[in-house]
Amino acid sequence: MTTPETTPTPIFHQSMTAPLRRVLVKRPDGAFAVDDPVAWHYTARPDLAAAQAEHDAFTAILREAGAEVVYHEVDQPTRADSVFVYDPALITNDGAILLQLGKALREGEEAALGQQFEALGVPVIGRLTGDQRAEGGDMFWLDDQTLAVGRTFRTNEAGVAALRALLEPRGVTVLAYDMPVYDGAEACLHLMSVISPLAPDAAVVYPRLMPVPLWQELQRRDMRLIEIPDAEFPTQASNVLALSPTACLMLAGNPVTQQRLEEAGFTVHTYVGEELSLKAEGGPTCLTKPLLRRA
């Protein structure tokens, strides 16, 4: 047993692509097998046993890549989407910012994640309140001092302003981009639905739905952009989790994107997510909340 004197100080991250060392996940439980898939905007009712098996295989890949896998154990018996732990918070070098989710059925996930952070020793340095709305899927670190945020049906201007107020005193620039309506308010088109950083100089992208100013910013930064084909957007080919600047994890069943990533020099790991991801519209970035990234 470690004593308070020997317990290491937590180190967090403002990176999307440094080697993944510690990651929070939530194994699907009874809430995930929803009785009303339409209300949750799922394509069908997930098979719980199959989803759990897929999740176990998914976390095995994370461990094999060198990450410590930590489970979100706060009970949430009515929150099917709580498996998507990326959304309720933003992790910074100093700790976590608790967000307020834009999907009404997810209300309360933020507080539950805050309880888990407390148990893990992750400090909460701020939280959104009132009419401020933002979801983690609408934001990613462009670099260690620049956060990109999408204004969507799930993230509003008040949420963006709150993030600026919390982060700019810490030396972070927040760049906001407007996302298209796409399939409407009930569908989930996050900013990270169309881009996943892979390395400091590379990302996988779906240009058709990207904001023009973001595309121009990536060009200005001389980013290598690996484009996914139209046919693989519905199967979440643009949702890719960086395990390190040279390795990544994506859903199986996207062979064109996988080949393009391998040709770009990445080691690509895949997982089967028929129940876990495709029915519930959440890929590997959604299923994980990286707590520590460092070389």
Automatic annotation (TrEMBL):
Gene3D superfamilies: L-arginine/glycine Amidinotransferase, Chain A (3.75.10.10). GO terms for biological process: L-arginine deiminase pathway. Keywords: Hydrolase. GO terms for molecular function: arginine deiminase activity. This is NG,NG-dimethylarginine dimethylaminohydrolase 1. It comes from Deinococcus marmoris.
